[in-house]
Amino acid sequence: MTTVDTPERRQLRELTRTFMAKEVLPHLDDWERAGEVPRELHATAATVGLLGIGFPEEVGGSGGDLLDSVVVTEEIIRSGGSSGLVAALFTHGIALPHLVAASAGTQTPSTAGSNLVERYVRPTLAGTMIGALAVTEPGGGSDVAGLRTTARRDGDHYLVNGAKAYITSGHRADFVTTAVRTGGSDAGGISLLVIEKGTPGFTVGRRMEKLGWHCSDTAELSFADVRVPVANRVGAENTGFLSIMQNFAAERISLATQAYATAQRCVELALSWCRDRETFGRPLVGRQVVRHRLAELHTRAESARSYVLDVATRVAAGEAEMTEVAMAKNAAVAACAEVVDGALQLHGGFGYLRDAEVERHYRDQRILGIGGGTTEIMNEIIAKGMGL
Q: In what residue span(s) does the Acyl-CoA oxidase/dehydrogenase middle domain sit (predicted)?
């Protein structure tokens, strides 16, 4: 029995599969074409206890830890969902942790942090609000320390000016946890503010069309003298960069999980296709070259899963270094890219059609090596960990 194969987590898998079969799979193609998932899905996921997985019960969550979130993510994709669905439904996984940490009073007991929990965390985990995280800007993504959106103190408010780009759930979000510059030009001058949609000067721009993740809406945001109460600051001023960095490990493990789970799902799809598809009088799987290719793809997917789960277990225990997380993400992303490409190839012409599930995975997997820190940034982290 492994850490993700306990009786409780088996029940969590079954709950996720039931939710997917009943509430998601009959509608996913329509949501892909609509460009978003309905708000009602958040409420439904909250009602069955999935939306709050990984968040403490005292802030409205369902309890559990990183490994429980991994189980849910894996099962969503293995059940026929997609990484785009995970991005759309669980955007709060990157929008809320900063608020929860601030409410815990790790520095000092935080009345403001508790207020943010009541106003934003609980409603989001109940499925009645949607939150997003806004860090990336039009002029830069991975260089968080170089962000240019400013927040100038003006009495009991901040005046926010700047722009954000590629913001997941930016169109549907009721609030955005936003990285702003409140201090100097380096990492020590960054803070986080919760900015509500509808605040004067806060504009949600065009819906951005993408290669993949079609059911996950993405937006540009702009801020022109937006007045944000100081009470909406997350934690102490100029501590935002540290908060962002601390959540990167969980975000990268989530993306790595999406990668290996997508690879596993595509192996299953390819195996089923090759058993059913007949050419020249016999099934594709009857040919050695096809069987060996399936064996190679299966090996890549399972190896990635084992590696990511090992690192995720260490992260959950507070033992893993960021270097290990970076290696796990890159390894899973590379495996996913190879497996999805191989699976689509085995599907032949059908794999190129929108009717084929493998086609969606082919498009969706491309973002996994970009989001949460690019493959190149991960390699830089790994190199530093090697002393280079």
A: 132-226
Q: Kindly report the CATH number assigned to the domain that includes residue 16.
A: 1.10.540.10
Helix (H) or strand (E) holding 363: helix 357-364
Residues 249 and 209 in one domain: no
Render pLDDT for 119-138 as a digit per residue (tens, 0 to 9).
999 999 999 999 999 999 99
In a domain, 111, yes or no: no
User: Does residue 82 fall inside a structural domain?
Assistant: yes
What's residue 142's pLDDT?
72
| Long-range contacts from 373-376, C-beta under 8 angstroms, 24+ separation | 373/142, 373/248, 373/252, 373/326, 373/329, 374/141, 374/142, 375/330, 375/333
What is d(CA 262, CA 363) in angstroms, rounded to the nearest whole number?
A: 11
Residue 122 lies in a domain: no
Q: What pLDDT does residue 114 have?
A: 75
Is the domain of 338 the same as that of 309? yes
What is the per-residue pLDDT across 132-172, written as a single tens digit (0 to 9) for each? 999 999 987 677 888 999 999 999 999 999 999 999 999 99
Whether residue 204 is found in the same domain as residue 85: no
| Catalytic (active site) residue 36 | no
Give the total number of structural domains in the chain: 3
Q: Is residue 175 within a helix (H) or strand (E), and if so which, with residue range?
A: strand 175-181
Q: For residue 194, what is the enclosing H or E element?
A: strand 190-196
Candidate list 251, 268, 278, 359, residue with the active-site label: 251
The separation between the first and the last C-alpha atoms of the chain, rounded to the nearest angstrom, is 38
Render pLDDT for 282-333 as a digit per residue (tens, 0 to 9). Answer: 999 999 999 999 999 999 999 999 999 999 999 999 998 999 999 999 999 9
Print the domain residue range for 13: 7-99
Q: What is the CATH number of the domain that holds 222?
A: 2.40.110.10
